Amino acid sequence: MMIDSRINVIALFLALALIIISVNLQAENADKMLNVDIVFIGNSITYGANLDHPDQDAPPVIASEYLRHKKKINTVSFTNQGRCGNTTLDFMPSTSTFADVQEVIKELHSDPAHLLVFSISLGTNDSAIKGTNGAPISKEEYAKNMTAIIDELLIRFPEAKVVIQQPIYYSPNTENGAKYLEEGLVRLQSYFPALKSLVKKYSKTQAGKVFLGSQQSFQYFKKNYLTLLTPENGRQGIFYLHPNKEGAIKLGEIWGQSIYKAL
C-alpha cells in the first residue's frame, strides 16, 4: 500500500510539473508574438489610385491583412502614406510631408513595445521625364534621396526596420499629367542596382535594419500588365501604370511577404 501511495504522489508531482512546463512554454511563446505597426510610404500606387475603394483594396491594406494571418504575428496596425505624384524629394526630412508623416507615426506607434516597420515604395515619379518634383532624377540622386529619408527615419526611430519595395512596371507610352515614356522606364530600372547597393551598405553600418523587398515585382507586372494594371487614357494613347483591384491584391501580397521576411 505504501508503495502504491508513493507512486501516486510521484505521478501527481510529475503531472503538476508537466502543467507548469506547459504554462511556461505558452507564456514564452506569447512573449514572442509580434505586435507590428507599419508605415507605408509611397506614391499613387501605394495610395491605391484608380481603385473604387482604396481604403479596402490598396496594397497596404492587403499587405497588412496578409500579415495578420502569419505565425508569430499578434496584431498589425498600419497607415497608408501614399501621396499621388510624389517623388523622393517630396519625402525628404526637411519637407512638410515628412513632418506630417512623423505626426501620423506618433499616433500609430504609441506603444514602444510594438515593432515599427517602414515599407517604402518610391521611384516611379522620380523616373519621369518631366511633370513631377525634381524629375528627371538620376540614379545617383535617387540613391542619395533614399539614403537621406532612411537615415532620418532610423535616427528618429532607431528600433524600426525599413523594407524598400521595388517599383513596378509601367507601359513605355505612359503620359498623364507627367511624361514618362520609354526614357522614364529605362531610368526607373536603373534605380534597382542602386537599391541593392543601398541595402548592402546598410547591412554593414546598421545590420538587421534595412531590407530589400522582392526583386521580381517589376518583371512580374511587366509580364502581366494587361490583367493587373488599369488601362488609362493618356496623351500617347492607352497606358498602364496603376494596379487594378487584382493587381493591388497581388502587390499587397508581395509587400506582405517581404515585410514578414524582414521580421
Characterization of this structure:
With 263 residues, this protein is α/β, with parallel strands linked by helices. The protein contains 10 helices and 7 strands. The strands form 2 sheets. A 5-stranded parallel β-sheet has the order 2-1-3-4-5, sandwiched between helices. Helix 4 crosses helix 10 and helix 6 crosses helix 7. It is globular and about 50 Å long.
List the helices and strands and how they pair.
Layout (H helix, E strand, L loop, with lengths): L1 H31 L1 E9 L1 H4 L6 H4 L1 H10 L4 E10 L13 H13 L6 E7 L17 H18 L4 E4 L16 H25 L4 E3 L4 H7 L1 H4 E6 L2 E7 L1 H18 L1
Parallel strand pairs: 1-2, 1-3, 3-4, 4-5
Antiparallel strand pairs: 6-7
Helix pairs in contact: 4-10, 6-7
Describe, in short, the structure shown.
Helices cover 51% and strands 17% of the residues.
